[in-house]
Amino acid sequence: MAGSGTAALRRRDDIVLSVENLVVEFPLGRGGRVQAVSDVSFDVARGETLGLVGESGCGKSTTARAVMHAPRPTAGAVTLAGRDLGALGDEALRRLRPEMQMIFQDPISSLNPRRRVLDIVAEGLSIWGRRDGAADRVAALLRDVGIDPESAGRRRPHEFSGGQCQRICIARALVLDPTVLICDEPVSALDVSVQAQILNLLEDLKASHQLTMLFIAHDLAVVKHISDRVAVMYLGKLCEVGPAGALYAAPAHPYTAALLDAVPEPDPDVPVSPESLAGDLPSPLAPPSGCRFRTRCPRAEERCAAEEPQLRPVTVDGADHVVACHFPLVEAATPVTVGGAGHVPGRGARA
Amino acid sequence: MTIDTAPAGSSAGRPPLLAVDDLRTTFDTPRGTVVAVDGVSLHLTEGETLGIVGESGSGKTVLARSVLGLVTSRSALTTGSVRLQGRELVGLGARAMRDVWGVQAAMVFQDPMTALNGTMRVGRQITESLRYHLDMGRSEARDTAVALLRSVGIPEPEARIRAYPHQLSGGMRQRVTIAIALACGPRLLVADEPTTALDVTIQKQILDLLGHQTRERAMSMILITHDLGVVAGRTDRIAVMYAGRVVERGPTRTLFRARRHHYTDGMLRCIPRLAQPGHARLSVIPGRPPDLVDLPAGCPFAPRCRAARPRCLVETPTLVEAGGHHEHACFFPVGTPEGDDALARNRAAGATVTGLPVDAETEDAAGPPRPADASEVAV
Prior knowledge:
The complex is a heterodimer. Chain A is α/β, with parallel strands linked by helices. Chain A is built from eleven helices and twelve strands. The longest helix of chain A has 17 residues, at 192-208. Chain B is of the alpha/beta class. An eight-stranded mixed sheet of chain B has the order 6-7-8-3-9-10-12-11, with helices on both faces. A four-stranded antiparallel sheet of chain B has the order 2-1-4-5.
């Protein structure tokens, strides 16, 4: 897996956010570098939610920050509503920031403990000098997220639970009316009963505020629940991108299948799968050659070590569902390039 | 709360390995006394796995630590009884507990990095207890440690015993803590959120390992988690905790299929599931868990419960038997005529006795169907 290529990009005119060949490197000292995100491309259409899943260390959060240009990526282009962020100067980029907002995993530590809720939510408005009707807008937004501005507005973050703090973070992110909302593990730190409240809230706000969302999480059930499309990441690369329904019903990449297999279902009649993915995530300092997943892949063959698989369509209708695997679990529509064709027959689709 | 008389699915008559009776752990804080564990009774037979499920603050971790005498805070007070293999543990000093920890009962913690000593090679952390408890010589202990590491699935154990914890991945570290816990052959393993810090594929490896080891050693296990998915396929019985109390317990399948407590029901219904279509409206439990300082009288779940009636505010429900070793602490249980009646009355009134609005919108959300009535339940 772990494919490169831009096959996941669709040709549509309602694309709001497009990410092309994104690379993020971090220096290691002594001239060494590690690639946390390695040639990742995807796009999100207006009103769509793209879920980004993967295990810790796969580069999901780094991708989110690179999309935000906080900091700027090492290479690659991020286009927001037709404007290339990389081409903008710092001041022009700053002017564009209200368009793209983010909420984080730990809601309590992402709020300033010394400030009152009303001031926290209003800060974006005061930075941009939008003082007219600011108080009303803040109060309305707090009501939208289920916080009573009268009783709660003058309190400070420590007086709220994690779920309520996440609601405040969401209000703060929406106050400038962004086009794109990036959610980085927004419910991972919350208890299940609160998690459901926040997920419902995000769905409601997405509709009422016409948001386009990039939703990052490690919980596959949560991602399926909220996403229209899902991208699966492994060790800095994309394995598979596709519509949520199709990808979960018939995963084409062995890694997607293994991830789904490992999810414990809250149902005693669903037997625990006897198979499990062996080993750990390899070190990103020395990623495996060829397909980065091959060291843990039950289907790996020699070709996987020699040649990196490119993202290519799973279905006949093109870029909707793409996979980066030489031996996918679902038959590819396009013929496999030389060398691998002989191995494909016999590997049927999952039901 | 009462002790089950005959445990389900195991040989009746044998004395239980672990019998906890009316265990209560409180902490003195500047704000008042926090009752973290409020009169919990439970038992465990040989080879049985009990799941304890609850959200943060429900008291599940303090319960586990109280059972093993590991609540060390000066402000804490534990009362009640914990009998492990017939021996009373409450009130035993640290010196006497040394013969219990590791030998009779051992614990696996949530965060393997802080559970391990970062300045000591993992081999020595395993041999330490072997040499102390089992009086092994240096080389015998080393060989045993290598065998233990191999049995928990660590590749190249001969080399890994020389490693420091930071040189291992999270999953490998948790395997090491399991090896340490298993070293002296305990009869009871208490695993407190053993996979919460791990990725889903590693979580599966660790849960498989724990299941394999408990079967192989006919060991009993208490598996504590917030994730109902983790306990669904891997426990014999489940106890659900809320606000320091067990609110429902029973054989795993019964608990999922014929849940009676509205909290259990709410939790099961608010989890997003792979089997559901995307964007389905999630059922929610309104509000949040209560403050454990000065818990008011009545059912602690009443302020969040759609079936709450006036009785729930004045009287505290205790566990009552619902058949098949299934117990719940609710006056108006899910799927019973009383429960349906309470819901219907609240719906007609538009709100519960605590003022929680009850309407179709908040109820008819996604989630598995509620159990209809007790008769359809196969145990």
